[in-house]
Amino acid sequence: MKKFSSFVAFALLCTMFTACSNLKINRPAAEPSGTTADKPSGGEASGESGTKKSDGANIAALEEAMEIGKYNAYVQLNNYMTGRLDQALTRYVDKLGDGEQPIIEKHFSFTMLSISDNDKSNLNKQFGFAEKTPAFPAVDPAVVKLKPVMDDLIAVLSEAHDYYETKGYVDDNFAKCKELHPKIIKARDAYYAAADEFLKAMAGMGAERRQQSLKKFQDNDEQVQYSALKFLADAEALSVEMEEQGITAKNILDLDMGKFKAKYDVLVEDLKNLTQQSQDDARVQKERLRSDYLKSYVNEAKEVKAAASGIIERMNKKSKVDDFDLKNRFFLENRDGTPEKFNKKLQGAIGKYNDMK
């Protein structure tokens, strides 16, 4: 089962919210009363200069607002794909498989995740940004390709949800189940191909913007915020390392510990720095951070580090994940020493980081 990494989008959204919260759009300056002849030449020059500066600032602010709005729309699209939609696909395949024919157990029962009307409305709005300015050359074409295949997938998933919600299989002895299954798998495979292109484009843009945020925090001497974001960035590096190696709970003992440990050591140092910075009350106040939100984030960061440590412990013990746990995602996300638990804890930390903003 293909899995998408969701960290990049979540972390980027919060950095862009930082920009949004500081954005102020200046209203055009009022025209001065009187005629040109009534005003001294110096005042005229000053007034024209002030108006031009105000107009320039206004245009720049509007352009920034448009860029942020479009970027956040794409982030929300990315988050939905790696969140709710991925969960719906995972639950379906875990139950019915991804072969040519569905797996139908003797005592069949299935609760399928829905794609709500509100979700569909939001997705249409997010896809609509592909035609809006400013252009994102690396992402817009991928969004255009993604829309039709994602529409097809959501349509067949919605049809299947209605069928399973009403237990239609009781009435037709699974006839429609067998009809829908190959359509879902075909639509899913087409979606994955387009989704990969979009997510990779977003990851590239995201990495660049995250570096800009880190530099901004350094330049402004916002060390707490720098440490908080750097921890997430380096935690992502661990997640990506496992993803690139193709490591899941099923084959955890195949993990290249040399590559993993190198990134793990950086994360350990990040947590040390974050903890120290967060305990500096004067600095926390200077950066206008709420201490209770910051404390919650640091606690979540500690759990992320502990989840990474759990993987090392499992590797040292050469302990496989139980076959029973491999059949249930809930168990995978709550067993020590699994990539699934690490990613779940990472998402929790991202949520707490967003709360700080």
UniProtKB/TrEMBL annotation:
Keyword line: Signal
Pfam family, one: DUF3829
Region (Disordered) location: 28-54
InterPro entries in the cross-refs: DUF3829 (IPR024291)
Signal in keyword set: yes
First and last residue of the signal peptide: 1-21
Superkingdom of this protein's organism: Bacteria
Protein name: Membrane protein
